[in-house]
Amino acid sequence: MEHFKTLSTYLDYLELPRPEHPMLSVFNSKGDGYLPCPKESSPPITNDCYSISLKKFVKGNLNYGRTKYDFTNGALIFIAPRQILQWDSSVFFERKGFSINFHEDFLKGTDLAQQIKRYGFFSYSVNEALHLSPKEEKQIELIVENIEIEYQNNQDEFSKEIIISQLGTLFKYANRFYERQFLNRKELSNNLLERFNLQLSEYFELGKLQEKGIPSIERIANKMSVSQRYLSDTLKKETGKTTTEHLHLRLIDEAKNILLKPNKSISEVAYELGFEYPQYFSRLFKKKEGISPTEYREKYKLN
């Protein structure tokens, strides 16, 4: 797999114009202008740059990690360094919108270098892009215009600070719009929870708890073809519980069934559920149920 360490070599590979700044490029199709089109196809590649694009990909097969992009106009796409990209000749690149690319070192020494790591949309699969309303799209485009003004003008000692500030503002608006998107996705989040539970049921029924232990959230997300961060954020917004909490609830439900078998010790129940240490199982059970596994078993007997 080819990896590009600099912004210039990455843009050269895409057959796009070289940047005005060694670590920053801005393409914007204001008015009647058009974006330059990148090369027709590419095998899997990675680079050390962040990318933010609006309405750049319209149709075709653009692979981003394990998934394909959901081509919808008005989608804002965020790509982080070292994430795998691949597309073929069926992709049609829309020539309206904007594309901002900057090397990760462009942020070094700024507060944004740490803040950007907290924005979940940079870890999402590309088919989970941010879908903007016309009003939201206009707000983002105004910020990009301000970035482009600084980028195109003769840059001085204040230019980088202003551009960094505008990028920070863009990310804050994107974060707000993602919050709105999550709130409007009740049906999707319910579907995700159902699929999440189905994955757990399959794992339990195949006896993998005893064989491989408690499944990781990352493994479950991969099986669902979504990112771990996206799965957790969506379920948290709608249900108020994280993916780990949902996993624990399922384990406790399983534990209740097994605890009713008097021939099994608490340690045996813990091991059957994939817990390496029975003490951890007992603590988790008491935290969720308010009583210990032994007390639960005794209470059931009394009933």
Principal-axes shape call: elongated
The overall average pLDDT, rounded, is 84
- Helix segment tally: 12
Low-confidence stretches: none
Tell me the number of structural domains: 2
Compute the CA-based radius of gyration: 24 Å
Could you please say which CATH topology of the largest domain applies here?
Jelly Rolls
Q: Topology as H/E string?
A: EHEEEEEEEEEEHEHHHHHHHHHH
Structural class: alpha+beta
CATH architecture of the largest domain: Sandwich
Measured as a percent range, the helix fraction is 40-55%
Q: Main β-sheet: number of strands, strand sense, barrel status?
A: 5 strands, mixed
**Strand proportion:** 15-25%
Strand order of the largest sheet: 1-3-9-6-7
The span between the termini is 63 Å
Organism: Formosa agariphila (strain DSM 15362 / KCTC 12365 / LMG 23005 / KMM 3901 / M-2Alg 35-1)
Domain HTH araC/xylS-type: 198-299
Pfam families: HTH_18
GO molecular function: DNA-binding transcription factor activity; sequence-specific DNA binding
Brief synopsis:
This protein has 303 residues and is an alpha+beta fold. The chain folds into two domains: 2-183, Jelly Rolls, CATH 2.60.120; 186-302, Orthogonal Bundle (Arc Repressor Mutant, subunit A).
Notable traits:
303 residues; alpha+beta; Jelly Rolls; Arc Repressor Mutant, subunit A; 2 domains; five-stranded mixed beta sheet; five-stranded antiparallel beta sheet; 12 strands
SSE topology:
Blueprint: E1 2-4, H1 7-14, E2 24-28, E3 42-47, E4 49-54, E5 57-59, E6 62-64, E7 67-68, E8 75-79, E9 85-87, E10 92-93, E11 98-103, H2 112-115, E12 130-131, H3 134-152, H4 159-183, H5 186-205, H6 208-212, H7 217-224, H8 228-239, H9 243-259, H10 266-272, H11 278-289, H12 293-302
Helix pairs in contact: 3-4, 5-7, 5-8, 10-11
